[in-house]
Design a protein that fits this description.
Blueprint lengths: L6 H12 L6 E4 L9 H16 L3 E6 L9 H14 L5 E4 L4 H13 L3 E4 L3 H7 L17 H12 L9 E4 L14 E5 L13 E3 L1 H12 L3 E5 L6 H10 L8 E5 L11 H9 L14 H7 L3 H11 L10 H15 L1 E3 L1 E2 L2 E6 L6 E6 L9 E6 L2 E5 L19 E4 L4 E9 L5 E8 L17 E2 L2 E2 L3 E9 L22 E9 L10 E4 L3 E5 L8 E8 L8
Parallel strand pairs: 1-2, 2-3, 8-9, 10-23, 12-18, 16-19, 21-25
Antiparallel strand pairs: 4-5, 5-6, 6-7, 11-22, 12-15, 13-14, 15-20, 16-17, 17-18, 21-22, 23-24, 24-25
Length: 545
């Protein structure tokens, strides 16, 4: 095998070479009960990626077997996320399309003596299931006749019983060392309208029963799922075998799910954040959902690259979030234009400069063809307060009293005087332009190490900059639960000054704010004020491999 293949690929290659399967077919089977998050990206990349790499097909199939939790909004968001990530499904399917098939499979199991209607409630079933070291106890309804089970199951379907009053259980082995094989529930009663089938059904199959039937019915060859389903594989194989599907049967293969440090990977908790108003919605740019990351400005290419670099493993582990940010930063550094933004403006007046000109400033030094934009430069400027110090430390290369600094793409300036208010706060810097120091044509003879960004105070625009951070603070021995770790400072809003060129930018356009970080224009922007979300900072200590 190639050293570039993983254990899933090795199985696929072996099955293709042996003739066990003629062509591979995978599927991505989300439950439409929430938005996809970064953890789902790994499964998307594996299932769609394997099909693409080995000339097969990948279906998008909604596992919509629980009408209580599902919503059309989630269906639409899932499709949008998959397309954005760069994948295309070969067929769009719903598990609910097979409810008739699943019902017939249940009847077949009952007739074979492999399933029975049980009157125990959920708590009673749990109590009789046993433990990892103790076998379970048979249900008192386990030996009902085939005729009685068929009658009761039909009555369940007809709506004669209330939710939880009866269930259909597979009849396997209550002493099995695998708890999942101890007569699992395969159908339950749910009186709820379904988004796809309406009120046709009031009984719905359980996931562990429905999923293998869906795979087998569609012709899935490799059912690739996360590691928590490994113990469910014997039940998966049992359902396919006992329902007598044609060979070759689908093979379930498990891989370790993606876990990121300080990142919420629970749809239940993400939904709670939305419902409690902790975030603005599922696509809040702080959210680890794919729609949130898209709004935050993460390139789809970077997410695919990250999933590829993390690789496929059989062991659960946690990946540093900085690894994802490093992948994002690589793409942005290559593709984004540089612009000048001042987050904390302090006014500068050039006392010996009375002109107004347009300077050529480089857009992206990493572009294949380097281009320039015209930036207005006049007597009054704004620089960032962080780029000036009244009492600078040693080796301080930015502006200071009686010091020099270069303005990016413009001139070297000298700080002549500092105007302060009564409290000692800096109000304005009076500076002078060094003669013959224009960028690209500097003959002044003065050498400076510091280069800072600026904007023309008379020809710039206001913008809102949103500094985004993790939704979670670090876990401690005392505080580990997500609910107790919400970061109240995960969103900080700054009113800043930016180049007027950003006025013509579109929502979704990404930029490098020079010396600050990478930002994307948000949909909350208006004609009067542009809004930008921070994507990632410029640098990080994390090194990609």
């Amino acid at each position: 095998m190639s050293e570039n293949t993983n254990f899933i690929e090795e199985r696929i290659i072996e099955d293709l070479n042996s003739g066990k399967v003629k062509a591979i077919q995978t599927r991505f089977p989300p439950e439409p009960n929430g938005y996809l998050h970064i953890g789902h990206a790994k499964s998307l990349c594996i299932n769609f990626g394997m099909a693409r790499k080995y000339g097969g097909k990948c279906f998008l199939r909604y596992d919509d077997t629980n009408p209580v939790k599902e919503d059309e909004e989630y269906v639409q968001s899932i499709e949008e996320d998959i397309k954005w990530l760069g994948f295309k499904w070969d067929k769009l399917l719903f598990a609910s399309d097979y409810f008739d098939v699943m019902y017939e499979c249940a009847l077949k199991l009952i007739k074979k003596g492999k399933a029975y209607v049980c009157d125990l409630n959920a708590e009673q079933i749990k109590q009789t299931r046993g433990t990892l070291t103790q076998p379970g106890t048979d249900s008192p309804y386990r030996n009902r006749s085939v005729e009685e089970n068929l009658r009761l199951f039909a009555e369940m379907k007809e709506g004669k019983y209330q939710d939880g009053e009866k269930v259909l259980r597979a009849k396997i082995d209550m002493a099995s060392p695998n708890v999942n094989m101890r007569d699992p529930v395969i159908y339950r009663i749910v009186h709820a309208r379904h988004h796809n089938t309406g009120d046709k059904w009031c009984i719905y199959p359980m996931y562990d029963f429905a999923h293998p039937i869906e795979d087998a019915h569609e012709g899935t060859t490799h059912s690739i799922c996360t590691l928590e389903f490994e113990d469910h594989r014997p039940l998966y194989d049992w359902v396919v075998r006992e329902c007598e599907f044609a060979q070759p049967h689908p093979q379930q293969i498990e891989f370790a799910r993606l876990n990121l440090t300080n990142t919420i990977m629970s749809k239940r908790f993400l939904k709670r954040l939305v419902e409690e108003g902790k975030v603005s919605g599922w696509d809040d740019p702080r959210m680890p959902t794919l729609s949130g990351m898209r709004r935050r400005g993460y390139p789809a290419e970077a997410i695919r690259d990250f999933c590829d670099r993390v690789g496929v493993s059989k062991a659960n582990s946690e990946v540093e979030f900085g690894y994802l940010e490093a992948c994002v930063r690589e793409v942005l550094n290559r593709d984004t234009d540089r612009v000048m933004v001042v987050l904390n403006p302090i006014k500068v007046t050039l006392t010996n400069y009375d002109e107004s000109e347009l300077l050529d400033v480089e857009n992206n030094p990493n572009a294949q063809t380097v281009t320039y934009r015209k930036v207005p430069f006049g007597k009054h400027l704004y620089i960032d307060a962080d780029d000036f110090s009244l009492n600078p430390p040693p080796k301080y290369y930015r502006l200071k009293p009686d010091g020099y600094v270069r303005l990016k793409g413009a001139y070297i300036i000298h700080c002549d005087e500092v105007a302060q208010d009564k409290k000692g706060n800096v109000k304005e810097l009076l500076c002078s332009v060094v003669k013959d120091s224009k960028s690209g044509n500097d003959t002044s003879g003065i050498k400076v190490k510091g280069v800072i960004q600026w904007v023309d105070a008379d020809d710039c625009m206001d913008c809102e900059v949103r500094q985004l951070d993790s939704l979670l603070v670090d876990a401690t021995d005392e505080v580990k639960d997500f609910a107790e770790r919400f970061n109240e400072n995960s969103l900080v809003t700054i009113n800043a000054k930016c180049e007027k060129s950003l006025k013509n930018s579109k929502v979704g356009d990404r930029f490098q704010f020079m010396r600050i970080g990478y930002y994307v224009k948000d949909r909350d922007s208006s004609a009067k004020k542009a809004v930008f979300n921070r994507i990632v900072g410029l640098k990080d200590s994390f090194k990609t491999k």
